[in-house]
Write a structure and sequence with these properties.
Length: about 350
């Protein structure tokens, strides 16, 4: 059995001696030292090559080959050594010097300066908590959950939803655009056409997504918000199914019978367009700034899916009908927790978030 420090098929003891010494050194020296000693201009491998002239002619080819194998073996091993050293160096940098610029602000504060923060466990953001609760209720009602795209094209965001170019109702949405003509979605309805064209009836889908609108912000308007869209398509679906679904959801979500009412509105992708309102839970319908002293809160724009949207998705509106809604998570959080400014929700302010632990 060959020794692990032996070069295969090498009859020259002086070549073997260099390899043995290299095998020792690689355990003790670093990359630069070892490269200089063996592969440098005055290194041991060059020295061996120079000694080829001392060999007899018939030995020269074999000797040259043996020295070359030695050189290759050494190169291979020291390259591996360099890889390991680089890795260790990177590891040291990561643990010692690196600052994670994407982390929350307090992560980069030296440990001794943040005894209070590290002693406190984190908690779920109210949007996450409310969102999970809402989705579990919709799932228990038989809906399947889909996640929306963050960016989409004009066709899915507007055109397929009965909003062709130049449609005046496009002005209802102040839209951001990327340089590639994509839109950070203005509503989760952007997924409706994809669902209609890829799923079979009965379609029972809730779509969750983060939406953006190019709006000036104030206490009740935010440029970024979360929506959970619902859509149901089958034969014989009526407005009564929509109202029953939303009412059952509200009762389950708030854990009691919630008063609601329906009023007409306008959204191009539903016909007729409706607004589902619930009693103001902040003031108990006595009247407060949040409900505009009306006692009612507009919570869910909704309605039967417009025949043009069904047709664009490949369904004959004479045979199939459906309904859709777009519910804002942020409004659910505000209503549940009596928050007076919607901008707190996405502020990342720990003082605000700690109230939800
Ligand atoms: Zn109120």
């Amino acid at each position: 059995m060959p020794s692990k420090n032996k070069l295969p098929d090498n009859p020259f003891p002086e070549v073997e001696a260099v390899y043995e010494s290299f095998s020792e050194d690689i355990l003790n020296l670093d990359y630069d030292e070892i490269k200089h000693k063996y592969l440098g201009k005055k290194g041991l491998v060059i020295d061996l090559l120079c000694r080829i002239k001392e060999k007899q002619n018939k030995e020269k080819p074999l000797y040259g080959k043996a020295v070359n194998s030695l050189k290759n073996a050494i190169e291979q091993k020291i390259n591996t050594l360099r890889g390991k050293e680089n890795l260790q160096q990177t590891g040291k940098m990561l643990t010692k010097d690196a600052i994670d610029i994407t982390a929350p602000f307090d992560v980069n504060i030296p440990l001794q300066d943040k005894p209070k923060l590290i002693s406190q466990p984190g908690s779920l953001h109210p949007i996450t908590e409310i969102g999970e609760k809402a989705l579990r209720i919709f799932e228990s009602m038989g809906f399947h959950v889909t996640y929306s795209r963050r960016l989409d094209n004009d066709y899915n965001v507007f055109e397929a939803l009965n909003l062709p170019p130049e449609h005046p109702a496009r002005d209802m949405w102040d839209t951001f655009w990327t340089q590639d003509d994509l839109i950070p979605i203005t509503h989760t309805s952007a997924m409706q056409n994809r669902i209609l064209t890829t799923k079979k009836v009965p379609i029972r889908e809730v779509i969750v997504g983060r939406c953006m609108r190019n709006e000036a912000t104030d206490a009740s308007h935010e440029h970024t918000f979360y929506q959970v869209e619902g859509m149901y398509v089958d034969k014989g679906i009526t407005l009564a199914h929509l109202i029953g679904t939303l009412s059952a959801f509200m009762n389950e979500f708030y854990g009691r019978d919630v008063k609601y009412r329906i009023q007409p509105s306008y959204f191009p992708f539903v016909e007729p367009g409706l607004e589902f309102l619930i009693e103001c839970l902040t003031c108990g319908q006595k009247g407060c700034p949040f409900c505009g002293y009306s006692g009612w809160v507009e919570l869910v724009p909704c309605g039967p899916i417009h025949p043009n949207v069904l047709r664009e998705g490949g369904y004959d509106p004479e045979t199939y009908t459906g309904f859709a809604w777009g519910l804002g998570y942020d409004r659910l959080v505000i209503l549940q927790s009596h928050i007076n400014d919607i901008r707190h929700i996405h502020s990342g302010d720990l003082k605000f978030l700690e109230q939800f632990k």
